[in-house]
Amino acid sequence: MHDLLICNGTVVTPAGVGKFDVFIDEGKITSLSSTTGNKAEASKTIDASGRIVIPGGIEPHAHIGGPRQPERSGALPVSKAALYGGTTTVIDFATQIPGHDLFHAVKEAEDRWEGNAFTNYAYHPIITHGADLDSIRQIPELVKNGIASFKIFTTSIRPPSPQMQNNHIDFGRLGEIMSQIEESGAILLVHSEDDEMVHYNYDRLKTTDEWDWWNMHRIHTNQSEDLSFRRVTRLAERTNCPIYFVHVSAKEGVNEIKRCRSLGLPIYGETLHNYICFTSDNYREDNGMKFHTYPSLKGDSDVDSLWAGLLDGTISTLATDLVSTTWEEKIKYKTVADVTGGHNGIETRVGIAYTEGVVNRNMSLERFVDITSTNAARLLGMYPQKGVLAPGSDADITIIDPQIDKMLSMDDLHLENYSIWEGWHIKGWPTTTVLGGETVVENGILMTDKPSGKFVERCISSEVTKSPAY
After folding, report:
1. N or C, which terminus of the chain has less Cβ within 10 Å?
2. Which domains does the chain have, with CATH numbers?
């Protein structure tokens, strides 16, 4: 007798989409077989008739709160909301702080997550401003410990203030970091903006008294993304370092990724589901700072370019850049110098991608699974353990009901007291989530009060680090 059987659903597999029965034992998928009238026995059966069965979503980019950031939601509420939204693995950040090394940053992340995770989890260490060589040269040992990705910022993002740590990495250190990444078989995540241009823009708008939040896109500009991406990719080409550009926001970023990939360089891009649905015009709404994530929302042509990149494979993954706060915290700051970035979108990512991609733009189910799960698993070192429905893979599974057709309300969501997606028209939504073979959400109801998620050790395939594989 099997532990769990998911039957009669439309299942998205590496071999294509079809009607399959999914058999699960001891937390693993043991087999997929064509749906027949004769069912093998199972301790529990989920009838997925009329629904779509996909790998559990993988959130590749989330900032989870801890003791140093009490205004942010922590691992417990964020990971619980992720399960409701069909996401089963969350990758957080382990931020280095002045006077401490990368191992200290990882320990802080472990303290946040261990015993508090409803999903599985991992972290990207962030190498920050002024990092010494000893810290940078800890990269190989961390890779051996199952941490396969690291992040840097090419800008401090905002003017100096007590509110935000300066994470800017100069290009001298960046060359050393890239060399360590390449030699270790890891991948480098880059928040890429031109620091001098960003801070000139801050100075210029302060002089002209255009300091309100709705001018954010005039500071974090298309030109800044263009120049910074080109500078990073040139250094990456010289060091043979694979790059994963986080939160691509502009058509210029998409074009540079496409150019590099055409040359055979291992350059990848991620965008955010708010970047493909909103523009800088939304900043002009009442409390329009609620839409903001750094760098910034851009224009209609950028939205079109991001969608084209998601559809044609130039952009590999869809993320949230989650920073989850209360409504009061999110609207607390109102100038271009201090607006809180990020939003609590971890629960909406998979469902919005289905509505906007599959339903409204004819994205294939296979491509939808790529951008919400499979490519994150491949690029960040979890495949085929995660991100795929295949024998031997972890039984992390999401079931979508395509018949759901409604306006999204706060009653549908489970994180904080606001959402930029409130009132959004959805067609299809995750309703059931399986984590490690256990049904943790069933028909929209949380079935567990136990945070049983585990840390995921990662190792990236050389296929990913040597050429633009996905």
Report:
1. N
2. 2-54+391-404+426-446 (2.30.40.10), 56-383 (3.20.20.140)
